[in-house]
């Protein structure tokens, strides 16, 4: 049986300089949030998913070097005061004052990871070809718990194109045990074998000639 394909996907954490700075702000945010850390991190994640990933133009404003710190600070206060929690607004103000609003997405990512670590949890995304039964889900969770040594926070998705098997994403690592991938690997191996056979046939023909 073939081993699952393990790949690594690009991550905001690939930039060491951004990672270091983002971690400082993430830890400060978690400290300021205190007992509300889970709620604040969830709010920040929702903020990055809905506003920064949408067509609002916010990310362009945050990264615009033509705007000074005072302009960005005024923009944050006008746009988010009364619309977001006080902790999140203060956090955005701090980033604006230090001209680091372009790191919001990175800070959100690191803060979520740090919070999961403190809570002894690990975010895991499991994609299957068909919905998992309660027994299958329990088996997957138990296997992940045993493998990771942490309590997995499992998000299950369904992708019929996988044909069978599972694709498990833990952080920026992907373990691909889907039937689709195994079939693709088998197809590639057969193609390589055919090419080798053709080449050996040519070599024998040239040698006999």
From TrEMBL:
GO terms for cellular component: plasma membrane; proton-transporting ATP synthase complex. GO terms for molecular function: proton-transporting ATP synthase activity, rotational mechanism. The keyword Transport applies. It is found in: Cell inner membrane; Membrane. Keywords: ATP synthesis, Cell inner membrane, Cell membrane, CF(1), Hydrogen ion transport, Ion transport, Membrane, Transport. Its main location: membrane. Transmembrane segments: none annotated. Gene3D superfamilies: N-terminal domain of the delta subunit of the F1F0-ATP synthase. It is a peripheral membrane protein. It comes from the Bacteria. It holds the Pfam family OSCP. The keyword Disulfide bond does not apply. F-type ATPases have 2 components, F(1) - the catalytic core - and F(0) - the membrane proton channel. F(1) has five subunits: alpha(3), beta(3), gamma(1), delta(1), epsilon(1). F(0) has three main subunits: a(1), b(2) and c(10-14). The alpha and beta chains form an alternating ring which encloses part of the gamma chain. F(1) is attached to F(0) by a central stalk formed by the gamma and epsilon chains, while a peripheral stalk is formed by the delta and b chains. Belongs to the ATPase delta chain family. This protein is part of the stalk that links CF(0) to CF(1). It either transmits conformational changes from CF(0) to CF(1) or is implicated in proton conduction. F(1)F(0) ATP synthase produces ATP from ADP in the presence of a proton or sodium gradient. F-type ATPases consist of two structural domains, F(1) containing the extramembraneous catalytic core and F(0) containing the membrane proton channel, linked together by a central stalk and a peripheral stalk. During catalysis, ATP synthesis in the catalytic domain of F(1) is coupled via a rotary mechanism of the central stalk subunits to proton translocation. This is ATP synthase subunit delta. It comes from Planctopirus limnophila (strain ATCC 43296 / DSM 3776 / IFAM 1008 / Mu 290). The lineage of its organism: Bacteria, Pseudomonadati, Planctomycetota, Planctomycetia, Planctomycetales. The gene is atpH.
